[in-house]
Amino acid sequence: MVTFKQLEALYWIAQLGSFESAAAKLNMSQSAISKRIAELEETFNVAMFDRSRRTARLTPRGTLLLEHATDLLSRRDQMLGEVSDKAALVGRFRIGVTELTAMTWLPSLVEAVSEVYPRLQLEPLVEVGADLFRKLEQDHLDLVVVPDVFGDARFTQVMLQGVRNAWMCSPRLLDIERLWTLEELSDQKLLTQGISSGAGLLYQRWFANQGVNFSRSVTVNNLLAQVGLAMSGLGVAYLPRDCIEHLLERGDLREIRCEPALPDTNYIALYRPDRWVGVSADIAAMAEKLCNFSRLLIAR
Fold first, then answer.
1. Which residues, in sequence order, are bridge partners of residue 95?
2. For the chain, what are the domain ranges?
3. 248 pLDDT exceeds 70?
4. Given this chain, do its domains 4-83 and 165-263 carry the same CATH topology?
5. Are 95 and 144 in contact (CB under 8 A)?
6. What is the structure's pLDDT at 244?
7. Cβ pair 229, 220 in contact under 8 A
8. Contact 93, 142 (CB under 8 A)
9. Which site in 75, 83, 149, 171 is 20 to 30 Å from 278, CA atoms measured?
10. CA distance 152 to 165
11. Roughly how many angstroms between the first and final C-alpha of the chain, as a whole number?
12. What is the CA radius of gyration of the chain?
């Protein structure tokens, strides 16, 4: 008899490219996952993998079984999501968020998910948007919260809030009483998050559309470091205004009035339509309700 555990072993070996990686993914030994494949091969009396190669490459019959396995596993997840008592649903749900989300409303989302799915093991990951999107593509994450520059028709998308950004710098760096043009501001050193960040990618494209190039820049893939360097007077930075308003009120940073104004960074929840059907939609809906970028958890 073919079991879901055997099909999961086949699926993850094919996805990750090795028995070792699939065993780690499924929290089991390599010998145990090899046994599951051997059981499949005995049931169908065909080889699933070409063992003459160093990597785990499916045979033609193995590829055919993978197509059926992928469909069956998706249907199983859909059945569990739609039929199971939410309080009894067991499993691991992997969610990826950016630093700004982690520092504002992620704890509220974790609490809400735990209340509805108390036995679901939520595994948050905090990284830059490009890395989160790549891991969603590779099926290493089930849902991500990222800027909408990463929107993709392959995934289900739920619109969240936008983040209002503003130019900021140390009060010692520039005359903040005057109105600056973007071209004038481009003579300053830019403290940027780089294109691996959703905000960084958004603004790089926007600068190009405006015909402006910041010839001097420092790439900082960390929001707190970006804020700290702006406070030090090293350069100018685009920063989420609402959640660091306390730094403006305290005089640690000053807002630079500039035309044209920066566009907002709009956030979305993206999830795989073939995984955790029902559960992903629930968690995305919770994210839509709880999303609030206006207050840092460490604001003083």
1. 124, 143
2. 4-83, 86-161+267-290, 165-263
3. yes
4. no
5. yes
6. 92
7. yes
8. yes
9. 149
10. 24
11. 61
12. 24
